[in-house]
Amino acid sequence: MARTRLTASERTEQLAAAAVRAFAATGYVGTSTDDVARLAGVSQPYVIRLFGSKQRLFIAAIEHATDRIEQEFREAAAQQADLSALGNAYDRLLARHDLPVLLLHGFAASNDPAIGAVVRERFGRIYRMVRELTGTDPDAATTFLGHGMLLTVLAAMQAVGPGGVPREPWAAEIVKAEPAGVDDRG
Predict the structure, then answer these.
(1) Where would I find the HTH tetR-type domain in this sequence (predicted)?
(2) pLDDT for 149-169, tens place per residue?
(3) Cβ contact 101:116 at 8 Å
(4) Cβ(89)–Cβ(72) under 8 Å?
């Protein structure tokens, strides 16, 4: 059987997805470009040729993860344009343990000026998208994102298991709590 060669765009996407998994597992400092290359099944020089540096690779992983959030939010809003639909879409994303952990690593690495600029820009895009897709006001959007950040932390520290099932009684209270002032977050 002949092997199908990936296009440069497909290979870049494959490496960004591998970078999400690798950086989620060991963080920005603890992950090497060689770790990502091994996970993707390519050589480390190839990774450097495509991305130029570990910093740029990490940024690509953050962009890949936030693109996924934006895509899920757009798809959810196409069916039902309210905070409840977006919240349900984000709950599904949190089931992928690597996504919330990578986001937290991105926030932690934001003291690096280049990384911080991208993380802030991407978070701002998501905030604006939530407002635009749902027509919600700034207070409700802020509450929604704050609740989402709390759920991200819970998922990253594995206080919730597969399917969002809380592992601790205190986590169950948090997961079931409705964000104050957000009527349509089901």
Answers:
(1) 9-69
(2) 998 898 888 887 766 677 888
(3) no
(4) yes
* 42 part of a folded domain: no
- pLDDT at 186 (0 to 100): 40
CA distances (Å), 100 to each of 26, 57, 148, 154, 157, in order? 13, 18, 10, 9, 9
What's 55's DSSP letter?
H
- Domain total of the chain: 1
Q: Which two tokens stand for residue 32?
A: 């090497």
Total length of the chain: 186
* Cα distances (angstroms) measured from residue 184 to each of 75, 135, 140: 18, 12, 10
Residue 93: its H or E element = helix 83-94
Domain extent for 145: 55-176
- 18 is a domain residue: no
- φ, ψ of residue 132 to 5 degrees: the values are -65, -45
> The pTM is what?
0.87
Three-state SS annotation for 123-146: HHHHHHHHHHHHCCCHHHHHHHHH
Residue 161 lies in a domain: yes
Q: How far is 78 from 89, CA to CA, in rounded Å?
A: 12
The answer to the question of residue 70 being in a domain is yes
pLDDT tens digits, one per residue of 33-46 = 999 999 999 999 99
